[in-house]
């Protein structure tokens, strides 16, 4: 009996130790191949176990946003690491984020963080066009989004399904910046010109790299992967004399009533650090550092080098539902 009690006590102690092990839960829409190594670094540095939920390519950010909304009465997530910004703003509007000003946020430009400290941006990407240089001569490179409405591009270009991720953000920004009527006209012109609708930005970049498409809308990280693989592709920044290039930051937000708020705050500040920005800039995703203390230069063009699309992200977030509904009803069928 004594031995049984000792064994039971040992099991109970082990169980308590396991329960007391510090942990943090993060939902991340950034590709797992980019985000997981960073999260492992945090684990090693702090001893805090990171339990990560990753999204898939076709439901980028939207799927995780839906999970956070569904779990609002009993949150499971501590930190939302979004690969874009509009769905973060939608969560803020629903009152599902907690205000937190990370120390590292002091090094982030004002336009890439929330005035009320509900989110902070870092590791930006640009919305660009990737061109197959074997298929398109330099004199025929597009200069504007409107060029893809021309007959010479008919059936030769692609876009990711614009209901999730940065493509949905891009379209919502068109609605906000151009106005709904003009944005709808743009989308209809792309559809009428037989745009190829792909499952994600990665697929867009790959199809251009393989010559299945001549050009496609994508993000700089997906384009740079093909460039690093020595594929015959080139990044084109559109509308440098017009509306400019849309730069989209990754965003970090603390979930309201998060189960592990203190560990969540440590993770957020770690992810905003110059060290992480440098790793993401030097890595295959070639992301654009926003932390002013980062010493590594971006490998793609930044808002300091080309005209940036002057978009009000809060207004674009308000246009998100309208844009998505239009896409589903009139653009995708």
Run of helices and strands: HEHEHEHEEEHHEHEHEEHHH
CATH architecture verdict of the largest domain: 3-Layer(aba) Sandwich
In percent, how much strand structure appears in the residues? Answer: 15-25%
Identify the CATH homologous superfamily of the largest domain: Periplasmic binding protein-like II
Q: Please give the alpha-carbon distance between the first and last residues.
A: 71 Å
For the secondary structure, the number of strands is: 10
Our Rg estimate from Cα atoms comes to 22 Å
User: Which structural class do the helices and strands define?
Assistant: alpha/beta
What's the CATH topology label of the largest domain? D-Maltodextrin-Binding Protein, domain 2
What's the average pLDDT? 93
Number of separate domains: 2
Shape: globular
* Alpha plus pi helix count: 11
Name of the top-level CATH class of the largest domain: Alpha Beta
Q: Helix content range of the residues, please?
A: 40-55%
Contiguous low-pLDDT stretches (5 residues minimum) are: 1-13
Biggest sheet, in brief? 10 strands, mixed
